[in-house]
Amino acid sequence: MRHFGHLAPEVRERLFHREPCEFDADSPARLLSAALGATLYSPATRPRLADDIVKQTRRGVVSMVLCLEDSIGDEDVAEGEENLVRQFVDLAARPGLDLPLLFVRVRTPEQIPDLVRRLGPAVRLLSGFVFPKFTEERGIPFLEALTGAEVASGRRLFGMPVLETPELMYRESRVEALEGIARAVEKYRSRVLALRLGVTDFCSSYGLRRAPDMTAYDVQIVASVIADVVNMLGRADGSGFTVTGPVWEYFRVPERMFKPMLRHSPFLEGQAVELREKLIEHAMDGLLREISLDHANGLLGKTCIHPSHVPAVHALSVVSHEEYGDAADILRPERGGGGVLRSAYTNKMNEVKPHRAWAERTMLRAEVFGVAHEDVSFVDLLAAGIPG
Predict the structure, then answer these.
(1) What is the pLDDT of residues 79-122, one digit of tens each?
(2) Spatial separation of the C-alpha atoms in residues 150 and 158, rounded to whole Å
(3) Considering the domain boundaries, does residue 364 fall inside one?
(4) Residue 12 to residue 280: CA distance in whole angstroms
């Protein structure tokens, strides 16, 4: 699979200076963690789940979570498990499918070995599990169960903890909770693909819900948690993990209080005024701003609950020609001694040593999401990625 692989080759050639790389479930963990992109969640109870997965793959989705936790009722868990196994067996029987990375969000550690056993040979389609409400105490049993299931199945399986408990929200317990999480994930580092943020649960601790014309970063108490998670768990010194962006809850807004957050000019230049109006109508201007703020705050990828969000996440994840040029200049071997140089775009200073970690991270993103041509904007990428 590859990002934008659902587009025709001639369209990719028009858009990309450097096309996204190909990868699969057996690719190196570092590559996969950066390549998750828009991870689309779906309840495991959907009766045509296998067909839904195939459909979304053809629309550009490269990672999905099939949920047995909050998205279904307590009374539906057994049915969800049965349906999940049945749909995996269905997919495994279809030859030649190019499927996304598939994860299952479980409720308890005991579900992990049980589902792996029930999947049988179809476990080859599974990339791992998502662990809800992760703390050191709750999380270790999930990670132990994952390790055992990996041995039993003979397949590499990853875990993605969700950080969403009240202990992380409350100031008096936050540092201790983060230190515990850090100990747990470090012990199982090779099995932890990414850390996911459960901002809806964070808001729940205070009876809050952000409006469609506000981002998670406008809710200061939530923004403070994101900052501390990145501070302690997302460092660029080799000790950090990929931390993914919070879910965007909206996909249509009947009324708004504030002005749209999308400037006219990028859409006028691309002759895409109608696209701008459509994005605003569906609350996508807030999503686009939040994705930009995710990147600015050290997050990569995003939890998505609606297919319409996927093209936006992927379009804004593509590395611009300018970013790529700056990163390449900084990482040239002859720059190893440091120094300062002017950007090839003559609009900024590139300081080799302080900007090296940014350049390395940008190059990894360029590998999985590609580099846009100099005259290609995010509007062009977004327009190309939206299903017709």
Answers:
(1) 999 999 999 999 999 988 999 999 999 999 999 999 999 999 99
(2) 9
(3) yes
(4) 26
